[in-house]
Amino acid sequence: MNSGIPTVDLSPFFAEGDDEGKRKAIKIIGHACSEYGFFQVVNHGVPVELMKRALALSKTFFDYPTEEKLKSGPVPGTPIPAGYSRQPERSADKNEFFMMFPPGSSFNVYPINPPGFRDVLEEMFSQFVNTGRIIENIIDECLGLPSNLLTEYNDDRKWDLMSAFRYFPATERENTGVADHKDVNCITFVFQDEVGGLEVQKDENWIPVTPVEGTLIVNVGDVIQVLSNDRFKSASHRVVRQARDRHSYAFFYNIGGDKWVEPLPQFTTEIKEAPKYKGFLFKEYLQLRSRNKTQPPTRAEDVISIKHYSIRRQ
Ligand SMILES: O=C(O)CCC(=O)C(=O)O
Ligand SMILES: [Fe+2]
């Protein structure tokens, strides 16, 4: 099925010896990351049955009355809203979500019902971390970096997070599920139910990503764009609401907040190219980005994106 973005079979990375298969996959992913910033994967290691179960359980959860869902709302005073939340009324984004940090994190809040939801969420989280490592190694290869460079740099898994989303049906006047944005993190995984609605911007066009069961959508975020000095792009994407409720999961393979992010020497000094970004502390960027939501600027040009750090040349 033509879903609009390239599809890659990751099975060679789970078997010994298929070097030809690996080379092929690396070639498609390298091309996809520079042209689209997005691709999708099959045979990615996350069990398809687990993904289906996760969607079924989150649908059950989001169908509960609000007061029931709010029992697993964020603990007051925690810096990040783990558990169940709904986008603020004035936000353009119209969705509710359940967010978690790595299993064992003291921020996490889990609902008692539906039974099994917590186990499935925790299992999904660990599976995503494994697939994240594989993609990270592939990105090293695609970019011609020493193997393990990204894994050694990205050695703090505490900042990873996963969300289950429910988007409300479009109305006659509004259809924004998530307004267009670029992800801040390293690598994002998304899967959506059969309703669909995710769209990726390429050049001036919005490409709808057709839902295919068991497929994971992968995109590179701003961190990879900066490290690669724009070799790989963090693409704008959005969710357009449909006639029916739409459910999805997103996993954000992040980096530690204390990491310094700047173009790697392999793409600057070593090849005598100018850096396109100044360096920054990751958590400072996260803070600026979260302000876009908590105190939305009135002028569109004041919304913070990775351009905030770009070095403009005459
Ligand atoms: O729900 C989705 O399909 C994607 C959500 C998304 O882009 C995000 O949360 O950054
Ligand atoms: Fe996103």
TrEMBL record:
Cross-referenced Pfam families: 2OG-FeII_Oxy, DIOX_N
Family label: Belongs to the iron/ascorbate-dependent oxidoreductase family.
GO molecular function: metal ion binding; oxidoreductase activity
Domain Fe2OG dioxygenase: 158-255
Keyword field contains Metal-binding: yes
Record has Phosphoprotein as a keyword: no
Keywords on record: Iron, Metal-binding, Oxidoreductase
Protein name: Fe2OG dioxygenase domain-containing protein
Gene3D superfamilies, alphabetized: B-lactam Antibiotic, Isopenicillin N Synthase, Chain
InterPro entries attached to this UniProt entry: DIOX_N, IPNS-like_FE2OG_OXY, IPNS-like_sf, Iron_ascorbate_oxido_reductase, Oxoglu/Fe-dep_dioxygenase_dom
